[in-house]
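pls design
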């Protein structure tokens, strides 16, 4: 049986289609159904109250379903919410659908098959949305506890990321792992270059929301076991291990830097864009083992080069003698 209270938003510029979907959902027992005829109207409704499931036509004037998806994902990121997004489309082809999945769409329904598939797809969407939002709620509860306890100074109280102490500890562990089992240790340093200027233009609340948004986005961009730590007010480190040194290249991590830079972050004062640079140091097992602090300082020394060039500054650690 469907959960009648789950929030569903229908977005379709075709009035007949909008009404037909609404009637189908009503007859199935859903009660919390809102409708919008444009993407802009849908965004206003979501700002007023989040939706758990969004049903949107792919082809709409001014802002199509993919652009709407990206806008909703930005709102979700800022509000710590998950919206399950289903696009209604007559488009087909693996490349087209794969591109849409990469942009954040969760599912598709072919319009010609909608009457036979919609309710089954909604049942799956309901389970996924409820689980994701429960996890987000639980995670936020954990962050709140961490903020109160400040967990032995290993957690950054604002973002919930590790702090510099945690980064050093995790980097030392990763170096030892490489010495014992092989592989390559990658230490990535991200510098948020325009934060001082942004502080002049935005209040502390918005700046806090910005940093939280950056932390959430980075968690999505890295692998689950990678360490992400805020090591300074305007710097974030990522520590990960790769099987071979050939995997530790600027090209491997360019998507992370692009992920930070290319999309603005929603705050209480509007969308804010960040200008970040990245340097990286790679360690593979050698006769002389550096400390975590040595690798961190090496990455810091390469940051000016990264800021001037706009590219990721890359260094493979070797003893100086």
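designed seq:
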């Amino acid at each position: 049986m469907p959960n009648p209270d789950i929030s569903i938003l229908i977005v379709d510029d075709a009035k007949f289609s909008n009404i037909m979907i609404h009637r189908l959902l009503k007859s199935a027992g859903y009660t919390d159904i809102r409708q919008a005829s444009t993407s802009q109207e849908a965004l206003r409704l979501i700002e007023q109250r989040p939706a758990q499931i969004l049903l949107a036509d792919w082809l709409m004037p001014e802002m199509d379903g993919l652009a709407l998806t990206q806008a909703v994902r930005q709102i979700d990121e800022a509000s710590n919410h998950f919206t399950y997004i289903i696009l209604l489309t007559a488009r087909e082809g693996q490349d087209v659908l794969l591109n849409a999945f990469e942009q954040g769409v969760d599912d598709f329904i072919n319009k010609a098959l909608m009457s036979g598939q919609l309710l089954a797809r909604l049942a799956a969407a309901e389970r996924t949305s409820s689980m994701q939002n429960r996890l987000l709620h639980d995670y936020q509860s954990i962050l709140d506890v961490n903020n109160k306890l400040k967990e032995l100074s290993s957690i950054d109280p604002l973002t919930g990321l590790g702090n510099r102490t945690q980064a050093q500890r995790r980097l030392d562990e990763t170096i030892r792992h490489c010495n014992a089992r092989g592989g390559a240790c990658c230490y990535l340093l991200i510098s948020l270059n325009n934060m001082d200027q942004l502080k002049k233009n935005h209040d502390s609340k918005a700046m806090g929301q910005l940093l939280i948004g950056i932390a959430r986005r980075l968690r999505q961009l890295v692998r689950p076991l990678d360490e992400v730590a805020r090591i300074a007010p305007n710097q974030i480190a990522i520590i990960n291990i790769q099987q071979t040194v050939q995997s530790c290249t600027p090209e491997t991590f360019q998507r992370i830097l692009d992920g930070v830079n290319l999309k603005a972050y929603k705050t209480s004062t509007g969308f804010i864009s960040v200008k970040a640079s990245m340097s990286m140091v790679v360690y593979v097992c050698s006769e002389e083992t550096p400390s975590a602090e040595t690798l961190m300082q090496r990455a810091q020394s390469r940051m000016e080069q990264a800021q001037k060039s706009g590219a990721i500054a890359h260094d493979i650690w070797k003893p100086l003698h």
